[in-house]
TrEMBL record:
This is Apea-like HEPN domain-containing protein. Residues 1-18 have a biased composition (Basic and acidic residues). The lineage of its organism: Bacteria, Bacillati, Bacillota, Clostridia, Lachnospirales. It comes from the Bacteria. Residues 1-23 are annotated as: Disordered.
Length: 368
């Protein structure tokens, strides 16, 4: 992929610095701007665009580019351009020291993600949902490469990979016909995770929370240790941290399995030292494949991909290993399936425990 910097699009560092301070940067695609700032970096013999699409987003972090700095990437059928701006958010910290107000500004990168494509303007307008989603995904993939490049070069650990859920749920989009210069502007929803206002806790609910405090503080229910990772996984998923979500949900399963094995050994009268040694000497998958069926019955064969254990193994366990070992970020669909199948496997485990209440009465107290 060819990379170009639209240097003519910027007017010099001094002016850009001034624009950063005042945050007066604005962009409007006109025929003059297009011919002056974009045509020079396009290879029109390979790809001659007919439609220009812009998406306006605000990132959750700041890449300190000069305002209006634009980078263009060329593929076979389109050109991807990224225009960097800056916003100072309402999250800025203010401290009143004596009579002087100290302000620590919090900056985030505002960006125009733009794509110039060979498709006819009318073709795109006939199915905007499809084309907007397709081109937004392509732009986001290329932006992630730019972010990674920046992180590596500047060693900036405040930045991270981006997914749709990390961006505002609704963004501005504009399509322009590069032949007639007519355009259409509108809103584009990229995900459905909108903020929700929570109801205040009732007196009864507050009592339940404080009652649980005693259980957690005194470790009266060892199975609660893994519950936090379920909520962590769901939160990561909603926030768009796909890799972290898969790791967290798999951790919840591993904590549940090892806690269950520990309690089963304890029910046999084994001492803490014996239990500790056996836990250290027994691999996680060995517990599932060879041990739990003798205690709880049921099918624990991970090769049967139609069962709860088989689906968890294929869609959660294997995915977690592949993602962790290769560094590949899972897709939205993969994470959605991984969390669902892990929760179904957890339900299966609980059902097996309930089916053996008489055999292991102590477990009954923990589950209920």
């Amino acid at each position: 992929m060819k990379v170009e910097s639209n240097d003519k699009y910027s007017s010099g560092n001094e002016k850009e610095s001034s624009m950063n301070k005042g945050q007066k940067s604005s962009f409007k695609l006109t025929k003059e701007v297009y011919e002056k700032d974009f045509i020079p970096v396009y290879n029109l013999e390979e790809c001659r665009p007919k439609t220009f699409i812009e998406f306006e987003v605000v990132l959750s972090f700041h890449i300190p580019m000069y305002t209006s700095r634009t980078v263009t990437l060329q593929s076979e059928q389109e050109y991807f351009s990224f225009r960097f701006d800056m916003v100072t958010t309402n999250e800025s910290y203010k401290y009143l020291i004596g009579e002087e107000l100290q302000i620590l500004n919090v900056h985030k990168t505002k960006m125009l993600m733009m794509v110039a494509v060979e498709l006819e303007y009318e073709t795109i307008l006939q199915d905007t949902e499809r084309y907007y989603n397709d081109y937004f995904d392509l732009l986001l993939g290329n932006l992630n490469q730019i972010v990674l490049n920046y992180m590596i070069v500047k060693k900036d650990d405040d930045c991270h990979y981006l997914t749709k859920e990390m961006l505002p749920a609704v963004i501005l989009v504009r399509s322009t016909n590069l032949e007639t210069w007519e355009n259409q502007k509108g809103l584009f929803m990229i995900h459905t995770h909108l903020p929700v206002e929570k109801e205040l806790l009732s007196a009864k609910e507050v009592q339940e929370v404080m009652k649980m405090q005693l259980v957690v503080s005194w470790n009266l229910n060892p199975f609660l240790r893994g519950e936090q990772f379920v909520y962590t996984a769901r939160r990561y998923f909603k926030q768009g941290f796909y890799l972290e979500a898969v790791n967290a949900i798999q951790t919840s399963v591993e904590v549940l399995i090892r806690t269950l094995f520990e309690e089963l050994l304890r029910s046999e009268g084994k001492l803490d030292k014996e239990i500790e040694e056996q836990l250290e000497d027994t691999a996680f998958m060995a517990i599932i494949k060879k041990i739990l069926s003798s205690y709880l019955g049921g099918s624990w064969d991970v090769t049967k991909d139609k069962t709860a254990v088989g689906k968890w193994y294929k869609n959660t366990y294997v995915l977690r290993n592949k993602a962790t070992h290769s560094g590949r970020i899972p897709t939205f669909q993969e994470v959605d399936e991984a969390i669902y199948d892990a929760l179904e496997f957890r339900k299966f485990i609980v059902e097996r425990i309930k089916a053996n209440y008489k055999k292991y009465p102590k477990l009954k107290e923990y589950i209920i």
